[in-house]
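Appendix B, Record 12. Input sequence as logged:
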Amino acid sequence: MNTTAINGEIACLDLVISIPDCDCPLMVGEVNAVDKVGSDEHNGGLFDDVFVNFQFEDYPLERIQEIEKELSDRHGESIKFSDLDNVLVKPNQLIRISNLPQEQREKLITDKAYAREYCDSITTQNVNDRKQQLIERINTDFRNDFNRHRI
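Logged structural output:
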């Protein structure tokens, strides 16, 4: 199964990074499963369920400790990196990175500031692309309506 992330389709085994606003922010992982809205496996809600294994990549110990502290502080309970092997994430909180070179994926894992910049650039690019698509659709609709009503 697949679903739509911020920058396109994702499916099982795709590599993704979570956006800063996610419950597990700026983490790289592998998609374990996608449960479509309305399927027997779906947890309910408006979005498809995407389960991500954030333990997939080799995080350095320092980054693992930073992640554990940040998530524990955010959720008010002790969160261990070992708990992050099947995390439910909304598809609109994920960016597909399967097509990135290994060096760039490694930098996303080790450098949180770089990961934030990358996510912000993809999110901004996606918004601009959608604006352009909307403008083109409005222009097309306008031309079609104009041509229909021409005498």
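The radius of gyration is 19 Å.
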